[in-house]
Amino acid sequence: MSEKIMLSKALTALSIGERFWFWFCLTSPTFPLLIAPFSKEKGMEKLLRKVQDIDLPMGAQVCTGMGVVNKVGELQLASPLFQAGMLRSFAKKVRLDLTEYPALAFLSGASFLKVHANGNILQQYTNPDCWDGIKRPSRIGSLQAAKQMIDSLGIGEEGWIWLRENENNVAHQVITILRNDDPSAKQFAAKVLAGRALVQSEDPGLRGMVRKTSKNNLVITTADELKQIGEKTSSWFRKKYNVHLIQKMNGKIITAMSVKMITPQHDLVNQMRLLNSLPDKQECYFWFGNEAQSDSANLWVADSIQTLKSKMTGETKLRGKIVRMKWGFEFQVTRQYPDFLQELALWVQKNRKVCSEVLLLVKSRMTVWSKSGELVKKMKDDTMWENIIT
Q1: In terms of CB atoms within 10 Å, which end of the chain has fewer, N or C?
Q2: DSSP letter for each residue of 237-291
Q3: Measuring CA to CA, which residue among 11, 200, 39, 231 is closest to residue 105?
């Protein structure tokens, strides 16, 4: 097996929070990097045996050390021998092989740490520009990767799952692995340990088996004490699935609970009801952006920032406050976004057949404010809104 194929498989399998050994040599005739996760027995020994077969040029500088996948899925590699310029040169080599080995995109955003023998960080080498244009795929441990795995399940298929959110339902962790890919759950257990170490919490999370019983129904079976699924994770589940949680001990059901799916129409109606209930000059919060794994824009409205954060699962275009005025709703923001009203109108047009209540937003306007609270710009387009109504 070639070094690039080995690396591609290892990169794909790494999860958020997971630690690994690495070997790095910029002048390698094959590829500069090889890795082995801590969970792999005698990983570093096997790695070093593998690189003995690589015919390195005279004077080649080799760096070995440890790395970790940080909270956003980027690799951080630490070695006493890293130097300035190495990261940019490495990124160039990644680009050369990216078309043939697309899993190398997992390296996008990687950074190098030069460390002392005692482990202290001497220098951090980061360069987002050198990874520009290389989109990193969703990594195990993220909501996006979990969604892809669960969506891929056939009726009756199963996977391992671990869920955890912090007390404020902001930091969320979801690890999923197909059962067929890990029958003994050994890889899964290692990834859960890595996830727990990444975010310190007394909450062990909920760990068990997820099974798709029909197109829109999931059953999660666990031996753990049942608790409500965190708000952010629950919000994501409910867009597509009814989730049934079952606690079992020795084959017997101890307790059960369900999280019902919210249809797009139901969700929109609730949001529009919130807007309609606002008294004059009162406000709520909004997020406008592209949903995760989608290029279509969406609007989320909530009565608190905390609730809004639970719904923000994609690329943010704009967020701020909505204030009810005598003539309609004013979107108050702190940065310029000239096309917002046009995009909002398109969103209303798209969703009016599903939920006629979105027409509440017709004649909405936007104001841009400085951080000090001064009005910078007013924007309105009543003619455009009249075309939406007709």
Answers
A1: C
A2: HHTT-EEEEEEEETTEEEEEEEE----HHHHHHHHHHHHHTPPTT-EEEEEEEEP
A3: 11
| pLDDT per residue as tens digits for the range 50-101 | 888 888 888 889 999 999 999 889 999 999 999 999 999 999 999 999 999 9
Q: Assign residue 146 a region (left: φ > 0; alpha: ψ between -120 and 50; beta: otherwise).
A: alpha
Write down the pLDDT at residue 169: 44
C-alpha distance from residue 63 to each of 15, 130, 217, 388 (Å): 23, 21, 49, 61
Tens digit of each residue's pLDDT (9 = 90 or more) over 39-58? 777 777 888 888 888 888 88
Q: How far apart are the first and last CA of the chain?
A: 63
Q: Kindly state the tokens that stand for 387.
A: 């075309």
- pLDDT digits over 98-131, tens only? 999 999 999 999 999 999 988 899 999 999 899 9
DSSP conformational letter for 230: P
Q: How far apart are CA 218 and CA 140, in angstroms?
A: 19
Task: Give the pairing of strands 217-222 and 206-214.
Answer: antiparallel
How many other β-carbons are positioned within 10 Å of the β-carbon of residue 301? 22
How buried is residue 277: exposed, middle or buried, by Cβ count under 10 Å (0-12/13-18/19+)? exposed
Q: Which has more confidence, 324 or 118?
A: 324
DSSP calls for 25-71 = -TT-SS-SEEEEETTSTTHHHHHHHHHTTS-PPTT---EEEEEEE-T
Q: Mean pLDDT across the stretch 323-332?
A: 93
* Amino acid 323: pLDDT: 95
> What are the φ/ψ torsions at residue 180 (nearest 5 degrees)?
-65, -25
Q: CA-to-CA distance for 304 and 377, rounded, in angstroms?
A: 25
- b (16+ CB within 10 A) / e for 306-331: ebbbbbbbbeebbbbbbbbeeeebbb
CB 306 within 8 A of CB 166: no
Q: How much is the average pLDDT of 282-307? A: 81
Checking if the pLDDT of 205 tops 50, the result is: yes
Alpha helices in 283-352 (DSSP H): 305-309, 340-351
User: Where are the domains positioned within the chain?
Assistant: 3-131, 143-259, 264-389
What pTM did the predictor assign?
A: 0.64
Asked if 376 and 335 touch (Cβ cutoff 8 Å), the reply is no
